[in-house]
Records
---
Amino acid sequence: TNGGDIESQQHRRSASGGHHPKHHPIPTGITITDGPHGLRKTLGEDLLEDRIPATCFPTASALASSWDVNLLHKVGVTLAQECVAADVGVLLGPGMNIKRHPCCGRNFEYFSE
């Protein structure tokens, strides 16, 4: 491709997180959406009003602090069920990371040491 056609533009936008936090249907038909504490998927342009209902779980750092492997498994199963129900192929979260600095504004989103 020449890099300027629509499909190439969609690939670049999807790979770069182009229009965060909206979900991105990419050309392969896989829907990717964000949501470190649960599924977040919008149905239209209004990011605050036009969303599907979803469970909001405690933050990853709070869940990890419980040391309850069974609880984390149940959260993972529930996230998977919500993704299947909403036709989402990839959920960008929860995540795992080493927290290198306490001032990082995203630390609450990660399971960590």
---
Amino acid sequence: SILDLLPGPWQEARTEDEQVTLLQQVQLAEAQGRNVQQFAKWQLEFGDRGLGSNIVVPRISYVGMGKDIRVFVTGVVILGDESDAERISRMHVRKDGRFEPGFQDSIIATTDEAKWRQ
């Protein structure tokens, strides 16, 4: 998985207990609105270019609803390298769906690529 390919805190979470603790840290930082600061701390800790480092951070994802819901761990890539960010943003314009509830289909939140390109 991407969690094993890029540097980040997941690679140091070797046991299941350490992984659960890390996922709790990620969720708490997000709930407290300080996930960006946490990501920056991890860029400095695990990256090789300071805040210009690309890292991967684990996130719990949910697919489905009710009794059919599936829960799994995914990786979120934090692009700190400006050249990588520019190159990838030209190819991949879809936004993170977590912003849609608050910003509906605005330019910052739409997951509809065709609409965004208009």
---
Amino acid sequence: KGEEGDIVTRSIVCCKDGVALQMPPPPQPTPVKPKAALAAKKVAAPPDPRREAMMKALTISGASAGVLGMGAGCAGDAAMLANLGTFTLAGAAGYQVVWGVAHSLHTPLMSVTNAI
């Protein structure tokens, strides 16, 4: 009974209890929706290079201050300080690598990464 209403299942199942089943009719195409009138595009202001540089500098300064604060907390433990330094460098390198990938290379690189 459940196979009667599901077009996918009915298209796959060719016989039931040794009796050939009728193929279902193909699904009807979806009607085309009328296009809405296009609104006028807003002209975006060009990016301010000074503001972008300031935001990058503040982000890096804040992250560095946070790392230094964490380093001050583990000043007596040399192994922890070495691990923190390694983690910080790996994070900075990873950030630069990920954000440096061109948009057109993202999908091929991700497919190779997923394959690995």
